[in-house]
Amino acid sequence: MHRRRFLQAAAAGSISALAPVRDASAQMAGMPGSGKGGGMMGQWAYAKATWQTGLPLRRIPALANGSPLPGTFEGTLVASPYSASLIPDHATDLWGYNDSYPGPLIEVYEGQHVDIEFTNRLGIDSTIHWHGLAVPADQDGSPMDPVRPGATRHYNFEVPPGSAGTYWYHPHAHLTNTLQVGRGLAAPLIVRGADDALRMLPELTLLVTSLAVDGDGRVFAGAVARPGMPVMMMGGVGELLVNGQKHPVHATTPGATERWRVINATPGHYLRLQLDGHRFAVVGTDGGLLSEPLPGLTEWVLAPAQRVEIVVTVATQPSARFWLRDLGQGGWMGTGAGAALMAIETGAGPAQPRVDVPAYLRPIADIGPASARQQIVLSMSGMGASGRFLINGRSFDMNRVDLETVVGRVELWDLINTTYMDHPIHVHGTQFQVVGRTVRGLAAPIPYVAWLDTVNVPAGETVTINIRQPLPGKRMFHCHILPHEDAGMMAVLNAFAV
Ligand code: C2O
Ligand code: CU
Ligand code: CU
């Protein structure tokens, strides 16, 4: 079996079939700018802007609901270029939803009917994709339904029951996602349910993006072009921002217990989150709350496009200051030593009484036994600017169906990564569960059950998921490192009703 896969990958021209998976340095030798001493980033260097830091953390304003009916949410979003003031003394030409960076928070309820009027003033095709929400295929904002420059369309869908959780929305146009998201088009979407075991906790929504701005306030073209080396390999060269700010300060009270929703909206940066001197509990993932909290954690890796909900109890000392950090990825592909994301200050006043996280959050149903199994092989061919990222040996073609399924049928998907880098694989139209992981032929344990729409498939490993499509139609599945997606690592799944 393993050997056959190896041969299939070799036939597809996979790089890693020709070299040991871990021997990345040899493969890197063929890449532009990878020569000794010069450093891979050399030709992509730009004079970084001096950001203003230490401002109070900005809360992302919510999109107004224009409907008087409680069961309906009506809003208007316009995507257009605009001039933002991000750094002192210079304007930055961004692309935004309703002239804001990040775009407005959409807050809706399970079962609510959503009607968003979307106008595209970008000058190129765009869409809005409701990342992680199971909406009908023709409302999913896929590249098959482009909204042309100057055009307006409505997105209509019902917020699925049981979907309470943290999501985001972003463009999904053919070949230009790196450009569009990298220029600022990304925003949070929160679904609330009638029951919420953590409703007593104060909340913070932290949308992490990366943006490369030079000293004159211009967005560095190398960061949004396709395909540029650092963007291609590492998902970006920009600053990590929280709610559009560099190193903002979250002012809280000593001993406060809070629920943070963290969204990785970067074009392709893995966040390894850590909180100085604090442990935290993970209580939710892409598709909402876990059944039981995972307490006592010191770090959590959030792959591109993933979300995590954590519960944090901050230090009880007054005037304490500590950081939420990204520890970075390390290794040859890493983005360095990591970066501070946000400061937390406890301020003055008496310590808050301790709040315990409930031991049980909500039921998470088993998806059920699978009746079919599919293999998804990730590979690469070529190098540098001509490199392609492939699924089952093929580059994306929206006029081709790559995989078929039956609506409601539970399947096992083996996501097989034959390359030397990690790929966060995202499937539209549903939430799935990880049921297996194989590291060099050995099964690794899956410590908890969670709803995900994006899963990291580490270099050289296989991840097995249990998945079903609740609705009919054609769906994208792809790597969420956007330059990989733009360079072909996307495929079409057709779910047909019988
Ligand atoms: Cu975040 Cu295909 O999407
Ligand atoms: Cu999606
Ligand atoms: Cu990838």
Main sheet specs: 6 strands, mixed
Compute the gyration radius: what is it? 22 Å
Strand order in the sheet with the most strands: 10-9-12-17-14-15
Shape descriptor = globular
What percent of the residues sit in helical stretches (DSSP H or I)? Answer: under 10%
Terminal CA distance: 32 Å
In percent terms, what proportion of residues is strand?
A: 35-45%
| Mean of residue pLDDT values | 87
Structural class: mainly beta
Give the total of beta strands: 30
Low-confidence sequence ranges = 1-42, 331-336
Give the cofactors and ligands: CU-O-CU linkage, copper (II) ion
Question: Total number of helical segments?
Answer: 6
Description:
This protein has about 500 residues and is mainly beta. Helices cover about 5% and strands about 40% of the residues. The chain has six helices and 30 strands. It has helices at about 1-10, 25-30, 175-180, 220-225, 230-235, 480-485, and strands at about 70-85, 90-95, 105-110, 115-120, 130, 150-160, 165-170, 185-190, 205-210, 240, 250, 255-265, 270-275, 280-285, 290-295, 300, 305-315, 320-325, 340-345, 370-380, 390, 405, 410-415, 425, 435-440, 440-445, 455, 460-465, 475-480, 490-495. The strands form six sheets. The protein has a six-stranded mixed sheet with strand order 10-9-12-17-14-15, with no helix packed on it. Strands 21-20-23-28-25-26 form a six-stranded mixed sheet, with no helix packed on it. The protein has a five-stranded mixed sheet with strand order 11-19-18-13-16, with no helix packed on it. Strand 25 (about 435-440) and strand 26 form a beta hairpin. The longest helix has 10 residues, at about 1-10. Mean pLDDT is about 85; it is low at about 1-40 and about 330-335. CU-O-CU linkage binds near residues 170, 172, 305 and 480.
